[in-house]
Amino acid sequence: MPAPAAALAWWWAPLLPLVLIAVAWSVVVVDAAADARAAGRPGGFTAPARELARLLVGQRRRTVAADPVLGRAGPVVLVVAAVLAAVVIPLGTRPVADLGVGVVWFNAMEVLAWAAVWMAGWGPNSVLSLVGGYRFVAQGLAYELPHMFAIITAAVGAQSLRVGDIVAAQQGLWFVVIMPVAFVVFLVSAAAMAFWAPFDAPVAGDLAGGAAGELSGVDRLLFLGGRWLMLTAAAAMAVPLFLGGGAGPLLPAWAWVLVKTLAVLAVLVWARRRFPTIRMDRWTEISWMVLVPLTIAQALVVSIVVLTRGDL
Amino acid sequence: MDVVFWVLALAAVMFGFGVFRLNSMAQVTFSLLASFLAVAGLVVLLGLGYLGVVIVLMMVIEMVIMAVFMIMYMMNPAGLMPMAMYHNKPGAMTISVGTFVLLAAGILLVDWPQRTGTPAPDPTFALGRSLMGEQMLTTMTLGITLFATIVATVVLSTGRGRYDRLGGDLDADTSDDPLGGGVGR
């Protein structure tokens, strides 16, 4: 196994949020254009910029007996969690922080979304937004178990929790070929952790916006922006875990990471329009009765392959 | 390093104290979570990266679920009315401050022995080796005990068992459920 790649220079740390925002923004623009096309309007490419300006100057909505501490912390935590989760993703060959327990770190940061969405739903003292917050916790319980088995399968395949080692282990064959079930489950849970349709019940229209319903101005910008950043970080994590990281012909490693991330995001944006919202009680049964056994079987197969190869 | 230690240590104590000072169940829960996260940072400072990050992972999930249950079992369910987390304030204060002073005095006064061993080159690997090697019996006992507890708790607390769902002879074609699940049983 090759020596693990070192981390990027320290000044990449402040650049990472900007990179993440740039990738997310490009997808937001495409998504807005698709929205406009679906509605029969021309263009739509400038809609995100106008919405950004509107939210930046917008007033905070005040509700009776609100909990401003938790309500404002929620959206901030969502943004911070997405950026912190992204520090272990190799932007090319090297990540911003080359942690020995990178996979667990990603999992721990991404799970902060549970607290973030619940706090944002709790804050305004509004029934519908509180129901949205509770919906996300229920959804989290559904998606988290198969998600953990999926990412740990990639770590088992590489026999390392370091994301760089997982990329190195895919030099011969991408993990998406060896562990397709884990890859699909990871994509599904990436959508679910960003409460992205078909898992958008926590912010769905039947709750008048749910957890995001009472948010306005900067709070709303941070919450919806944090959701996009979380989706981008999760999609980018699929690249080193299952899609061979920066491996590819002609282009440099960073370009391949970007291309693959955008491809994964394209699938998620497509899935959002293709599938209707699924209720979290239905999804819990599918997740626990079907996906958990499938991912455990996948992990077992990968473990046996690793053992028979005699690498350990 | 020293600065990080003191910041995390102070944060852990302050947020821990916040559990007694704040008067909203939700804020109390997340104050306790912040205290745990500071402790996780201290564990990472000890060089135990895996344990520290797993503490973050487990505590976030656990405290969010705790918040749901704590608010559910409270006397004012929304928890937005002011409330106190403590009963018997003087007694609780005496016990907690006394315990803190006792432990702190112990840390400062005990004549700690010199370290003789050396840390493993990869603590995560050493931990896995230990759990799957000489500590296997402990791990399995713990795992089965926890699992049996979960099963027993669910069996004792569930209002509807399989006989309610599938009939006395368990031979109904479709189960009688208030809400249909996603698998279509």
Automatic annotation (TrEMBL), chain A:
Family under the similarity heading: Belongs to the complex I subunit 1 family.
Keyword hit for Cytoplasm: no
GO cellular component annotations of the record: plasma membrane
Membrane-spanning residues: 12-34, 69-91, 111-134, 141-161, 173-197, 228-247, 253-271, 283-307
Source species, domain of life: Bacteria
First-level EC class: oxidoreductase
InterPro entries: NADH_UbQ_OxRdtase_su1/FPO (IPR001694)
Enzyme Commission code(s) on record: 1.6.99.5
GO biological process assignments: aerobic respiration
Subcellular location per the Swiss-Prot or TrEMBL entry: Cell membrane; Membrane
Keyword vocabulary terms for this entry: Membrane, NAD, Oxidoreductase, Plasmid, Transmembrane, Transmembrane helix
Membrane-protein topology: Multi-pass membrane protein
Pfam entry (one): NADHdh
Official protein name in the record: NADH dehydrogenase (Quinone)
GO molecular function per UniProt: NADH dehydrogenase activity
UniProtKB/TrEMBL annotation, chain B:
Name of the top EC class for this enzyme: translocase
GO cellular component, one term: plasma membrane
Subcellular location, principal: membrane
Localisation per UniProt entry: Cell membrane
Pfam families: Oxidored_q3
EC number(s) given by UniProt: 7.1.1.-
Single GO MF descriptor: NADH dehydrogenase (ubiquinone) activity
Membrane-spanning intervals of the chain: 6-23, 30-48, 54-74, 95-115, 135-156
Catalysed conversion reaction: a quinone + NADH + 5 H(+)(in) = a quinol + NAD(+) + 4 H(+)(out)
Bilayer topology annotation: Multi-pass membrane protein
InterPro entries found in the cross-reference section: NADH_UbQ/plastoQ_OxRdtase_su6, Nuo/plastoQ_OxRdtase_6_NuoJ
Highest taxon listed in the record's lineage: Bacteria
Family: Belongs to the complex I subunit 6 family.
Name of this chain's protein: NADH-quinone oxidoreductase subunit J
Record organism: Pseudonocardia dioxanivorans (strain ATCC 55486 / DSM 44775 / JCM 13855 / CB1190)
Native organism taxonomy: Bacteria, Bacillati, Actinomycetota, Actinomycetes, Pseudonocardiales
